[in-house]
């Protein structure tokens, strides 16, 4: 029976920087399978996460809405996910069998968001392990990987015995055999889905990997690839100070990277090791498509929820408006007649995670809900992109907004009022803040007015319509209008 709709393999990663691909020109990281995927499809060079931390970024992915509309403008566990439409729900209605393997990071943990089935591994979630969460909502009960690991190894459902934390820059190899690593588990279960699928029904398979999100614990083989290699040091601009680094640089679970240069190097080794391990496991999954004779009938998407500062500008983790945090990889590979992009092409239009949902629905021939903010990336092949993207993140003293275009970026920290301006086309690593440059004054004023326009009418009172107002209360979840 000839399928009328293409299968969709959606590969999601967590905390992978947009520049950490070989094909993106990274000087150190090796990603042969992802490079192959991009060479057969299109790489979006200006893909961003509008609210760069796990929960709000995934809300954009699953709803196709920008933060102001899905209402998650910061990181907060325990808020129920209730939306009129979801990506998997719409594809299910369009006739797809929908399966997720790996990370969801929703509430409650076993909320399927319209998927027919979920095999869950969310990583280490503090909220779901301690405190007053119900028994059924404890990760010890709800997480399928932990259950599987306990059955396989006879150990407690806790892979943290290596002494690493889920937000830490401390790194060391995985303490068990590689086949027990959660990255391998996601691949194994995804491949098993290909074996079990109904061959007469199109599928949407979301292989949702946790790494390279900490812990940086790739198998030893991958650490060995980088441990003796000279690595490019983190990017630190001529505009920043070390105040926060001196306060926090000796705390392993920190907003900053470490002060110690050797610990910085170890963090880089661990992060890059996780990326190449991930790449090789994605290679296994791509080869399984070939074994199942699905490579010609399947559209493949690859992206991440947000990036990782990895000691750039002395910072660590995400949630900030700098490139390490907000710039993400995005690849579409498959039938060029469906995408409009020739193989080995690069699209420099400004794209965002909310664009994924309308793109997939477009490929599936399904209707796109009216409340979706995103744009189908298939239209971007004809140059129908956006002028700029407004991003934001509630983050305490570091709460921020940004306006980013193909060539530059304006940042505003809403608590302090601090502003930055970077000319990305000349300075992609944000080494020079030109906010005081007279030659840029007119452009800065234009981008500032774009932000004012985006924030006008917001409940926080960030603007009076003519200027930005710092110091306003900024909740992580906006009340429904």
TrEMBL record:
Quote the EC number: 3.1.6.-
Alphabetical list of CDD domains matching this protein: sulfatase_like
Q: Which region is the signal sequence? A: none
Q: Which residues form the Sulfatase N-terminal domain?
A: 6-366
Q: Which Pfam families match?
A: Sulfatase
Name of the protein in its database record? Arylsulfatase
Instruction: Look up and give the organism this protein is from.
Output: Marvinbryantia formatexigens DSM 14469
InterPro entries linked: Alkaline_phosphatase_core_sf, Sulfatase_CS, Sulfatase_N
Q: Name one GO cellular component term.
A: cytoplasm
Q: Does the keyword Metal-binding apply?
A: yes
Similarity-based family: Belongs to the sulfatase family.
Keywords tagged on the record: Hydrolase, Metal-binding
